[in-house]
Design goal:
The structure is a single chain. The protein is mainly alpha-helical and 108 residues long. The chain has a domain of 69 residues. Helices cover 59% and strands 0% of the residues. α2 runs antiparallel to α3. The longest helix is centred in the middle third of the chain and has 21 residues. The radius of gyration is 19 Å and the shape is elongated. The termini are far apart. The relative contact order is 0.08.
Length: 108
Amino acid sequence: MPVYNKLVRDRIPEIIGNSGKTYSTRILDEKEYESEVRIKMNEELVEYEEAVSDEEAIEELADLLELIHAAAAIHGADFNQLETIRRQKAEKRGGFGERIFLIEVEDD
């Protein structure tokens, strides 16, 4: 029996059970949950970086977005609050759409 020891989406146990397999799970406490969300976010980021097609990349970005929703909730915010902060930062500092790559800045 493979051992996973990782955070999974809420319906994964149901899907496993519907396939006729047995499994074991436990509910994480808040501290463990935050840690596992961070670990899972890194895992999904690596999968995004390794994606070889636009379709794979979009799938991984969707996973990251789901984890961003979870992380925002951990820190007491909802996605609307997160989006408001993102917009404010974009207005103040810009986004990334112009693809600017900073090479160096001369010190005084």
